[in-house]
Specification:
single chain, mainly alpha, two-stranded antiparallel sheet, 29 helices, 8 strands
Amino acid sequence: MAMNNEELYPVGNQEPSQLPFPRPGETKAPGVVTTRDYDRNMDACRCVDYGDDGSATWPRSAPRSTSRRTTPRDEENDSPIEEVRLTVPPTDDPTQPALTFRTWVLGLASCVLLSFVNQFFNYRQNPLTLSSAVAQIGVLPIGKLMAATLPSKTIKVPLTGWSFSLNPGPFTLKEHVLITIFASSGAGGVYAVHIITSVKAFYHKDLHIIAAFLLSQTTQMMGYGWAGLFRKYLVESPYMWWPSNLVLVSVFRALHDDEKRPRRGTTRFHFFLIVFISSFVYYIVPGFLFPSIMNISILCLIWKDSITVHQIGSGLKGMGIGAFTFDWNTVAAFLGSPLATPAFAIINVLVGFVIMVYVVLPIFYWGNIYNAKKFPIISQNVFDSEGKPYNISRILNSKTFDINLDEYNNYSKLYLSIFFAFTYGLNFASLTATISHVALFHGKTIWRNMIKAKEGMQNNFEDVHTRLMQKNYKPVPQWWFHIILILVVGLAIFACEGFDKQLQLPWWGVLLACLLAFTFTLPVGIIQAMTNNQVGLNVITELVIGYFYPGKPLANVAFKTYGYISMSQALSFLSDFKLGHYMKIPPRSMFVAQLVGTIVASTVYFSTAWWLLNSIENICNPDLLPEGSPWTCPSDNVFYNASIIWGVVGPRRMFADLGFYPELYWFFLIGVLCSLFSWLLRKLFPNTKWIEYINTPVILSATSLMPPARSINYTSWVIVGLFFNLYVYRRYKGWWARHNYILSAGLDAGIAFLGVALFFTLQTKDIYGPEWWGLDSSDHCSLAICPTAPGVVARGCPVL
């Protein structure tokens, strides 16, 4: 991702089925699920069914790990990875249908719905992201209903020899997996839409609709090529085991066990309906009637005229001390559902947040480091040397859309708020911290498994799951992937070079981005397949094109997207292929579901964005929007400023010898040293339990989402997360095991449906709520954005 601070380490944005479990007493990255983890935490996978009294019942499909003893012969016939042996059954039923009429209907509907809702809410003040877990839970009863009611009549497709049945029998596990794969395509987002929004809403430039559409499609589809090139190594190898998929396997198996309604209780689906309806009804209060309860600052309400108090108390523009919310969307807006993040990860985020916001920020701001007092204490905007918003139009050539160096030298260098500047430094540190963390804690394991995987390739991977897949299903021909890669690269060059070169990136830039993606997909994939850690390429791609081709904002973001996002997409496809490998989904059915889902999702994301950008007047411009309007585009605003920093001005004029922040490059070294310090702590104090939970990359990247995330998003997220995943988990484990993730999905879904309903019924007519003081969705801390340096003039602020 761009240094827009959104996706380097989205700790809080993981799906419930992808949660890492810590294992005290052993050094491993979060996300590596181990034998003892499954004995202790299997209830989090919903493989344990807890009664109301807390007693546990283990379903037949998920036997206790202690009940199965393996021998070397078992390992040879099963999987060499113990965690896989304990979770994935070494069996298959090839007669079970997968890509059926029900799969197409429910899969495409889920894909379209999630794509539309996620892009629709992405432009709003509090974005909402629906994960595929919502569809995973919601489609199960619908699929069973279709199986019970649809006729089994066979329908022939005219002019072809194809035929299909509306109802091939009971709703199967394989259908459910493929539907979720469709839904995950819609939940993943299309990063290139940020580029389109920046051009139209911020730079106020025209962009050809076909160029924009091709950009959206090619950046998502290019990953198929890299996935095809490396799938034999990263999917068929039993040593590339993708730990997060094991929890997915457990969830699917648990959902397909027969569930009886407990005495004086509800089934999971009935509980989901109750939460969904309650969330739907309640959200009309913060979403329409009383938006002020989304952001409440006690300190600002008491001290109304103090800049310092507003900086400390504002949850939107300040440190958020004493700020709180009564809105679930504010809680989950940027970091995802706190219910879906384990307590140890929340605590690591809390430590990083407290150190950065409550320790480092006050020292550097009130110490006036980097002239911090000239600018707001926390802001994602860029400024000139006088503390005024940077007039980007002064340094951009209107015709060529690149930097005018003479004007830039006569005007001003680019300045950031102290918090925004340090966020970039922390992103540098978190990149090197992740690499060094994986090397220090897992280097030997990765190297050993790589050697085994290489030997396995020579023996055609003697693994039961690979043998079953090869025996029962036709593989996907390699040339399918090659054709897609060649076609997509050609279309990408056409999109960048054609249409008057609106995207600025030359053909060699596209090929260089492809080279970076090709180079890093395998090593990064190996790390992710063993540790659940993905190393982001956003810093590398921005630096490379920033030095090679400075002064070109769209070239910078396009290069970054083709280089980083195509690799990230490839790893997402490979992870899904591994899930299909474990669940014994026909490979060609998986390929079709992924391909169609990606094309449909990219089209819906693009269409929704294009429609909103052309239909909502002054979208993304809070100064011109009506009071109460939610269309403030916080994520796109950060992306736009990042395109100025890395593209227009360039890394050399920001962070090197020509810039104001050259010291931030030292954070690359700081990241390595922090991981080394954490490793030494564990070596020196191997029996100190709390040290086992320290995760340096998570701590360093804790505030990487700020901005656009605000302090109130973090504080409320931490409070809710610790309450459910620490207190409730320990005191009411039976309730937590049955209802925690479903509560999360129901709250998200209720807000999504009412938010869309409010837009189409009222907000399209510019009705955002009743005219009263409660309509103000700010936190009444207007002075929090004010500079405190003497003589600096800012709109709405006193001059000191």
